[in-house]
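SEQUENCE, STRUCTURE TOKENS:
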Amino acid sequence: MTTNRLLLRVAVANVGVSVLVLALKAVSYKVTGSVALYSDALESIINVVTSLAALWALWFSFQPADQNHPYGHHKAEYLSAVLAGVLIVVAAISILREAYFGYLEPRPLEAPTLGLAINLAATVINLGWALLLIRLGTRHKSPALAGDGRHLMTDVVTSVGVLIGLVAAVVLDQPLLDPILAAAVALNIIWTGIRLVRESMGGLLDEAVPADVLDRIRTTIAKGAAGAIEAHDIRTRQAGRAVFVDFHLVVHGTMSVSDAHDICDCLERELKNAVEGAIVTIHVEPDDKAKHQGIVVL
């Protein structure tokens, strides 16, 4: 099975899992009437929307480059991550509103044991699925799936906090803890949304690859460009699973075009082996253009 097909299947399953978890949390809220569980259920609605957005983004990003998008559609995944972040913040505002009214008129939970048990089952499902999404998204460089997984993991943490707090509210007979917990969940959700938007904007604004990847690129160029003199003006950016690398390669002025092309072909293969998803552009220059800085070819 190809990587693209695997990721699409995971994205489809992600929608199904999100709907299941939403149904369980909605039932939990209806059974108890808890404002905190309402906040948990509302975040699950956002999970369904973002999972649908991630599915579309993956499908769109897999489309080949065309005349209107000559560099491909890789950045579509970042758009879904930005959408997820914005929707998370909107959900948090709604939760704060409900928490405010719950604080003004606190009421005891109805059927707390059944409601909390249902919510716990939903949380366990979310935990297992979040770990899988983070692992697959990281391995296959999919910002949409990895971002969804991190969002679900935050959901798991807040759900556990809500469960512990509601158990304390029932045991201590303190219904005021319910809206207070809901407000705490909302603030945590806001922080998650802001962080997710920040990470996605980095991809949209063409941030350079991490330092360890850049070191790998520089080492590969130094060892794989036999016959050249130096490489300079290296630029990198990452768009989803694609890593764009471009630089100037200095060769002897008397070298034939064919020989220079052979060096570039060899170097491109080496970079693609060293960096998954690398798309390489090399500008060849004669030795009088050497800057005597950058990468000296070994």
